[in-house]
From TrEMBL:
Residues 142-166 are annotated as: Disordered. This is Cytochrome C. InterPro entries: C-typ_cyt_methanol_metab-rel (IPR022411), Cyt_c-like_dom (IPR009056), Cyt_c-like_dom_sf (IPR036909). The lineage of its organism: Bacteria, Pseudomonadati, Pseudomonadota, Alphaproteobacteria, Rhodobacterales. Residues 56-131 form the Cytochrome c domain. It comes from the Bacteria.
Amino acid sequence: MSIGLALCVGLPALAQDEEADNVTAAYEENGRYFTEDDIPTFNVAEDGTVDWLTFSGFRRYHAECHVCHGPDGEGSSYAPALKNSAVDMDYYDFVDVVVNGRQNVNASSNQVMPSFGDNPNVMCYLDDIYVYLKAHGTGAIGRGRPAQKEAKSDTIQEDENACMGS
């Protein structure tokens, strides 16, 4: 099997529509997977091995996001579930919400998502978090830490070092 093709084990059948294009990996570049529209996505091999970004996204999500949004993006009484946001929401809208925050305040709701645009622990791993949520939101991976992962590519390590200033 080609490592450049996504093998979305457990992925629900998708019609040939925008959602499928938002999920299916069309190519791989230095350990990162992308849709045909150049949107980051995940790769899960038949044996359950996830790409590095999905694994890293699990770790980063649980370090920065799960306090409000619940374990595995399942939501909480404090903030909504995010596991479907990476599937249902446009990638650039997702990035905008994380970078700039969002307020939904009305008579029955008072939800405020803070801005994380200045937080390198989120911004340096934003695609990782997005890819992890997308993989979980589609059902390609279940709850909990992925058991097996691809190795981190040199390019991903270099990008991380540059972003974190090391």
